[in-house]
Amino acid sequence: MKNVLILCGIIVTVYVIYRVYRYQTLEDGLELLIKKDAVILDVRTEKEYAMEHIKGAVNISLGTIRERYTELDPDKTYITVCSHGLRSVKAEHILKEKGFKHVHNGGAWSDLQVLIEKKIQDRND
């Protein structure tokens, strides 16, 4: 019985984390931000980025962002992405701590790429 309760607790926790992730990731307003020249900031490692990434994205890994944030313009709008969405949330918070006002979590880069492609396709239809 104790194991069942623990399993239920884990399932509920994972579900809550997923719902928070979906709430915090960017879907609404994406097209507007991209039209306004938002920079997609990929915070995965260089190796992950080299394998595949969103065209035009800037790569600064989460592990180096505390040192390299000075390479970014605090007046620009950034959409952070990574492989699953956890590192992008951390990067968003770090940049906001450093005074960046226009930072949004885009979640998983592959999800964001699908949304971008869908917006482009909708525009062409």
UniProtKB/TrEMBL annotation:
Matching InterPro entries: GlpE_sulfurtransferase, Rhodanese-like_dom, Rhodanese-like_dom_sf
Keywords on record: Transferase
Cited Pfam families: Rhodanese
One GO molecular-function entry: thiosulfate-cyanide sulfurtransferase activity
Gene3D superfamilies, A to Z: Rhodanese-like domain (3.40.250.10)
Superkingdom of the organism of origin: Bacteria
Domain Rhodanese: 34-114
PANTHER family from the UniProt entry: FAD-DEPENDENT OXIDOREDUCTASE (PTHR43031), PYRIDINE NUCLEOTIDE-DISULPHIDE OXIDOREDUCTASE (PTHR43031:SF1)
Annotated protein name in UniProt: Rhodanese-like domain-containing protein
Lineage: Bacteria, Pseudomonadati, Bacteroidota, Flavobacteriia, Flavobacteriales
